[in-house]
């Protein structure tokens, strides 16, 4: 089954090339994109099953033997990330197609949307499967190029400004990452992750700490951890709703994945554990305080996104099997729930004409379906029992209590405070946007539809469709509902998912399954 390993990268790239050849044929582009992402979900699920049964699956690209060639490795962690990310990107694609069709456009507004979206998917999958540092860097660069195009769709002033900030920050992290790669190669003579396991252990402690710190800095910027997260709230909310959703759900988690992979495989022993724990509590608390102060739903969700990255760092910083497995579980949960909430925010913008809380009201009565689509994942994000958010936080708290250290107890307290403030922020959104009397300036009918097209639609307005903003498009409702159901399913299958996360965490901490899969006869 190793022949399946490259497909999550190859299929989206081939799909991107095909959709470029189909410029001017939007229906064909849509079907190609849907087919490719559906196949990617199926392949990713197969890889997850196979890696769970038989251990990591390895492919030496082009037949070049490791460590000379590029190696792709699908272990349980990588395969799990592939399944979740592919499922999310498929749902967001359906949402964006539904949004364009609801606006009455028979032509794709920017013919590069589908190719760019598929390239973004390929970049995410490549990052998860990369078996060497330089290929991981390539994955991040693919993400950067594709995400900049998607972020600036429509070429509005706000989007260009936000895109510029995003690119500058991303390039800075990429330069730091590239310098770290150069230093690693100069110190060890290799960039293959499995080969680095032994070679890094022979380096002087100070040099290892320098390399570890530079990689953490690069990945910390990409993951938007405090104090490296100031760029995110100004960048994500300006993009169209589907773009914001996929960015919020996936891009920062690629940075978190890189932290998990390098901290466990390359730099075991917890030398940066204190730094990670301090960063985790600051990210949680500062992020949620920023969310509480917001008066716009998209910006509020952007700050909660930053805040909950702290929970993942909490688990990594504990350096225990329970902490790491809870962190992996929470990554899966957060990708799903955060994406769902941003899609729901796009529906709020379409129905209410804005995401500003002082311009909304009465949505629970005006659109009960929308109210449910927001309410359920919002409770999940806040960690209300018995949802997966509660179970993930419970696992992290248990890991912190088992650790028993002072910093661990501070993280436990910080996690509880963050969860309560998240509930407060979500309750405030519900009260102002859904529960109170509709605001006098809140548009309705065609006014709401026109406002949604102008402010957040994927496609620029080319004339009214005659649709009422009071009726939300089914192709936007359906993928949002699918993600809500997926979030609920995480609760139903929490036991098996925690078992899978524990197995993945144990393999990461032991390191030998990964190394033996790449070098069956031992690393050279």
From TrEMBL:
KW Transmembrane helix (keyword) present: yes
Record-annotated NADH:quinone oxidoreductase/Mrp antiporter transmembrane domain positions: 130-418
Membrane spanning stretches: 6-24, 31-49, 77-98, 110-129, 135-154, 166-187, 207-232, 239-260, 272-293, 300-321, 327-348, 369-387, 407-427, 475-498
Localization in the cell: Cell membrane; Membrane
UniProt keyword terms in alphabetical order: Cell membrane, Membrane, Transmembrane, Transmembrane helix
Alphabetized Pfam families for the sequence: Proton_antipo_M (PF00361)
Topology in membrane: Multi-pass membrane protein
Disordered as annotated region, ranges: 443-466
Protein family per UniProt: Belongs to the CPA3 antiporters (TC 2.A.63) subunit D family.
Protein name: Na+/H+ antiporter subunit D
Organism name: Micromonospora andamanensis
């Amino acid at each position: 089954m190793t022949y399946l390993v490259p497909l999550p990268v190859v299929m989206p790239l081939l799909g991107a090339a095909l959709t470029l050849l189909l410029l001017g044929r939007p229906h064909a582009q849509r079907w190609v994109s849907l087919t490719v992402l559906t196949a990617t979900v199926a392949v990713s699920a197969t890889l997850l099953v196979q890696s769970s049964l038989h251990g990591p699956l390895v492919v030496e690209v082009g037949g070049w033997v490791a460590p000379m060639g590029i190696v792709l490795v699908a272990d349980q962690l990588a395969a799990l990330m592939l399944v979740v990310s592919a499922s999310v990107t498929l749902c967001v694609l359906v949402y964006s197609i539904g949004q364009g069709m609801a606006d009455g456009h028979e032509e794709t507004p920017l013919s590069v949307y589908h190719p760019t979206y598929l390239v973004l998917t390929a970049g995410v999958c490549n990052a998860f499967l990369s078996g060497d540092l330089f290929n991981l860097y390539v994955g991040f660069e693919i993400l950067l190029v594709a995400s900049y195009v998607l972020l600036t769709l429509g070429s509005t002033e706000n989007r260009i400004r936000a895109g510029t900030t995003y690119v500058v920050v991303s390039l800075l992290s990429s330069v730091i990452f590239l310098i770290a790669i150069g230093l690693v190669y100069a110190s060890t003579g290799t960039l293959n992750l499995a080969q680095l396991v032994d070679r890094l252990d022979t380096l002087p402690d100070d040099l290892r700490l320098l390399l570890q710190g530079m990689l953490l800095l690069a990945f910390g910027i990409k993951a938007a951890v405090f104090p490296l997260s100031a760029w995110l709230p100004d960048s994500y909310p300006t993009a169209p709703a589907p773009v914001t959703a996929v960015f919020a759900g996936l891009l920062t988690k690629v940075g978190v994945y890189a932290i998990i992979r390098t901290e466990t495989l390359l730099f075991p022993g917890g030398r940066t554990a204190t730094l990670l724990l301090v960063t985790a509590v600051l990210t949680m608390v500062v992020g949620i305080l920023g969310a509480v102060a917001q008066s716009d739903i998209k910006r509020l969700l952007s700050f909660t996104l930053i805040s909950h990255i702290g929970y993942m760092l909490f688990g990594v910083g504990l350096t225990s099997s329970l902490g790491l497995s809870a962190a992996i579980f929470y990554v899966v949960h957060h990708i799903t729930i955060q994406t769902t909430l941003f899609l729901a925010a796009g529906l709020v913008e379409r129905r209410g004409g804005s995401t500003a809380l002082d311009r909304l009201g009465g949505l629970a009565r005006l659109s009960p379906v929308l109210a449910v689509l927001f309410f359920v994942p919002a409770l999940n994000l806040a960690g209300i029992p018995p949802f997966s958010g509660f179970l993930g936080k419970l696992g992290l708290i248990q890991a912190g209590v088992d650790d028993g250290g002072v910093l661990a107890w501070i993280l436990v307290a910080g996690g509880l405070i963050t969860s309560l403030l998240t509930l407060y922020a979500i309750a405030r959104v519900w009260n102002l946007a859904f529960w109170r009397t509709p605001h006098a300036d809140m548009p309705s009918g065609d006014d709401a539809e026109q406002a949604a097209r102008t402010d957040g639609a994927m496609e620029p307005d080319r004339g009214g469709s005659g649709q009422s903003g009071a009726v939300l498009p089914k192709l936007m409702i359906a993928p949002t509902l699918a993600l809500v159901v997926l979030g609920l399913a995480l609760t139903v299958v929490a036991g098996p998912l925690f078992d899978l996360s524990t197995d993945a965490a144990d393999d990461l901490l032991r390191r030998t399954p990964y190394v033996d899969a790449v070098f069956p006869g031992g690393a050279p």
